[in-house]
Each structure stands twice: as structure tokens, then as C-alpha cells.
């Protein structure tokens, strides 16, 4: 292909309103993104006042301000670093995360972690849409406008439409939107901080008593699961357009920096703000963004609402786009825009159910998130180890051929993920036993360290243990597998 032809194809692709590329490998001419480009989607998806509300969840573990500060920097930063490691695979194979994972699990074996990936993505997308609808109703109520069923129906329709349309449009449209949304949501977030600074009471914040090691680890795991580990299953989806000569370390840096910067700063501010006001800490449990809006002047409520909703939509768009790709990797034979539309429809139905029929959503969601977080952590450990072990780019053809070098099923990695998950589930408990009794089966290995009622039960050690078993296990067991694959045996 001549240079002029390649440039023409790239230009035409980027001008197209709807991306038709599905899970196939990105054409060489379209791999033009730079590592710094990864900053925009990750930053835009995480620069939201919703991040401030996480400080309430951190304080829920009984930690002091300094302990909370430590777990915020370490937990959020480390979790997005993990995303950055997996993003390297996107550059090496120019395919979605769940397709690249076939190298470790087999072309058909990848469907096992793929199902978990799809479920956790759909959970996050629906959660973000729900937050946007509830925030709209609360702000309308603060303004003295209608905030009942009709308002929620309209808000649900608008939020769902924005998410679905952007995700159906695809990569190039989303990247442009994210670069714009970053400035809009960032400016509104800075304005929120300026307007609420006078509410901080340093004496009340620094006077909080500290927690034991168990509480600190629990807060750390919650932040890791809520941020980077919640995105890790789609990390390579946004690096698959990177040039093949892009620096792996630069990809890791920009992924980590873009994803972690806003959450770290926002949670730290939230620790100061919410640590000064017990009423905010309590209200955030059921309506995080709406509660944060209650302390704003009336004139700023509409700009605040628009920025908050757009930030939530931004995050949900990334999720819908990637969950659609995961559906395709599971074998659904439809165009990529159709897969995104299917997931958008499911998101809309889920939002309607929670907003209009469910009595509580945050507690069951967090229970759901922790449960799925265990196998996803095991998968992430395996894939990170796989990235570390590989020295060559992926065999693109073999990623789609069960008879190729990656095989149909890799029972070693599947068994490792299963063992890590079983052990991991045994070391976590359902933190919301009353709201989600269907999930009370976990924690069966906690007996030697105090049982389900002991202090270690709340630390959610299972997520970290599952991640470590996956990573260390595949470093040991996967080394000969990767060597044979790269030698073409």
C-alpha cells in the first residue's frame, strides 16, 4: 500500500460518523494514535464530582484522614497502573482486550472470562446511568421544579440516548467527545470545589480516629475495585489504535496518569469536605451526586447538573462501547454498532427497573461488584503476567483461529482462574447482607482469621489474593506455554 493510499484510508476512517470496525485487528494505516492520546478518554471518564462521594465510602471503613489519604493515592494509582500494563497488549495486537486475552485462554476458552467481563461492564454502565437520572431528579427538586416520575422518565430517555448514540458512533467520535467533555466537566468540578471550600473544617477532619490494618486494607481494595479494576477488562480497547512503535512504558504512564489523576484529587478533596459534614456522609449512601448538590447555590445547580450528567455519560459510553466488543468476542454475529445498541437497550431497561421499582440500588450493586471483582481480578493477574512474559507481537490470524498457535481452550489458565476465584470468594463477604441476601454464600475460608464476623472479613482480601494467584500462577505455569506459542510450535 502506498503512503498516499494509506493516508487516504485513514482520513476517510476518521471522518466516518459511525465506526464499523468490530473485533477484527485494526488496519495498519489506522494505527496512528500516540500514547498521550490515552489521557483524554481515561481522564474524561473519571473527572466527575461523583469521585468526591467515594470519600464517604472510604470513611465507612473507619479510617483516619491520613490513612484515607494513603489508600487513595496507592489504591487508585495502582489500579490504573494495572490497566496500563494490559493496555500494552492493545498496542501489540491492535484488537480488543477480550480478543487479545485469547492468547492466554484459547480462542474459545476466552469466553469464560468474557462472560464475567460483559457482566461487570454492564453493571458499571447501568450504575452510571442510574446516578445521572437520580442526580437530575434531586437537582430539579432543589430548584423547585418537577422532580417526580415524569422528570425521571425524561431524564432516563435523554441519558440513555446520549450513551447509546455515542457508543454506537464508535472510537473516533468518542475520542473527540472525550477531549471536549474533559474541559467542560473539569471546569465545573473546579467551580464546585471553589464554592464549597468554606465548608471544610480541618479540626473535624484531622480529629477522626484511625482504623486497624484490616480497615485500611478494606478501603484500599474498595478503591482498587471501584476504579482501575472496574475498567481493567477494557484497558486494551483504547490502545488498539496505537502505533506499533509506541513506547510500552509511555502507554502505561498515560493510562495511569489519565485514569488516576482526577479520582485521586477529587477523593482527597472529598475526604476534607465530607469529613467535615456528617450529613453529607450519610446522604451520599443513596444519592451521591444529588447529595453533593444540596450545598450549592441555586444559580449553579443547572451547570453542576449538566457537568455531572455529562461526566457520568462519558464513563458509561466507554463501557457500552467495550461491552459491545465483548459481546462480539463471545460469538455474537452482528455489526459492532448493533452490539453497542443491544447493550444500550439492556442498560436502559436496567436503569428503569432500579429508578422506578427497586427500593435500594447502591448496596446490591456494591455486593455485585465485589463478587464479580474476584474472577476479574484473577483474569487480570493472568493477563498482566501474559503481557510480561511475551516478547513478540501477537499472531493476529491465530487470535481468530481455534486451530492456530493459541489453540481453542487453554485449560491451564482456565483452571488457574477457577482456583483463584474459589479462593478469592472464600475470603470476601457480602458487605450488604440485608440488601443482597442472595450473595451471602461467600466468606467460607475466613474461619482461621476470625470468621465472617471477624475484623478481617471486612478487608475483602479475596480480591487481592485472586489477583496475586492469577499473576504469580501464570508467571510460573504460563512461561512454557508462551514460549511454545512464540516459537510457533
TrEMBL record:
Chain ranges passing through the membrane: 38-59, 65-89, 115-140, 152-173, 180-197, 217-238, 250-275, 295-328, 340-362, 368-389, 409-433, 456-477
Compartment(s) where it occurs, according to its Swiss-Prot or TrEMBL record: Membrane
GO molecular function, one term: transmembrane transporter activity
PANTHER family: PURINE-CYTOSINE PERMEASE FCY2-RELATED
InterPro entries: Pur-cyt_permease, Pur-cyt_permease_Fcy2/21/22
Protein name: Allantoin permease
Keyword Transmembrane: yes
Keywords attached to this entry: Membrane, Transmembrane, Transmembrane helix, Transport
GO cellular component terms, semicolon-separated: plasma membrane
Protein species of origin: Ornithinimicrobium tianjinense
Record's bilayer topology term: Multi-pass membrane protein
Family: Belongs to the purine-cytosine permease (2.A.39) family.
Chief location bin: membrane
